[in-house]
Amino acid sequence: MAVHKLILDDIFEEDLYTLIAIHCTLEDYRLAYLLNKYLGISLIRKPLDLDYQDEKSTYSIFEWEDNKQQTIWNLVSNVCKTEDYRQRNDESLFDSEEKITRTTYLIPEYKTVNYFLKIDNDINFSKEKYILNNVLEVPQIATAYSIDSNQLKSKDNLIFN
Questions:
Q1: pLDDT tens-digit readout, 66-105
Q2: CA pair distance 59, 154, nearest whole angstrom
Q3: What does the pLDDT read at residue 93?
Q4: 3-state helix, strand, coil in the chain (%, to 5)
Q5: CA distance 135 to 84
Q6: Which residues contact 35 (CB under 8 A, 6 or more apart)?
Q7: Mean pLDDT rounded to a whole number for the chain
Q8: Which domain of life, per UniProt (predicted)?
Q9: Neighbour-count burial of 66, counting CB atoms closer than 10 A to its CB (0-12 exposed, 13-18 middle, 19+ buried)
Q10: What is the model's pLDDT at position 91?
Q11: Is 2 helix (H, G, I), strand (E, B) or coil?
Q12: Which residues contact residue 33 at a Cβ distance below 8 angstroms, ignoring those fewer than 6 apart?
């Protein structure tokens, strides 16, 4: 019996996007405001956060659709901290519950990154460098750099729609 093999490389091509990692301690709304100011964009918080692992992890997301350039910009948090209460087994006169803080990451390979700026559309190197330099001008941002999305193991988490 003959075996037929279908090669679909030509049919499905990967989405082209630029990914910038941002290290800062700002709240998400404050960072979105500063990026709007320094980049001349209009990021707006989406009504629903990103939910992963059956709503156990939620990540804030801001979006701006640039109709002129046919580009979608997303600012997404990489860190989700949740508090769980667990019943203690020991006999005590005091609290029988203990609070546990659990931290999960949208992209676990980059645990030190606080936020990701994803720009959907293949932009050239000079424009990417210009955007990165403007992001680095924000005084509250410690550092920012571009990430090669082909090297990510969990790039499926960056599909927002």
A1: 888 889 999 999 999 888 777 766 666 665 677 788 888 9
A2: 15
A3: 61
A4: 20, 35, 40
A5: 35
A6: 41, 43, 75, 117, 135, 138
A7: 85
A8: Bacteria
A9: middle
A10: 63
A11: coil
A12: none
The tokens describing 31, both together, are: 């960072």
What tokens does 144 get? 């920012």
User: What pLDDT does residue 160 have?
Assistant: 78
Which pair of structure tokens corresponds to residue 71? Answer: 């580009």
Domains (ranges, CATH) in the chain? 17-80+106-158 (3.30.160)
* Residue indicated by tokens 């924000």: 138
Per-residue tokens: 150: 């082909």
Side chain identity at residue 109, one-letter code = E
- pLDDT less than 70: residues of the chain: 6-15, 53-55, 88-96
Give the strand pairing for 115-120 and 71-77.
antiparallel
pTM for the full predicted model: 0.81
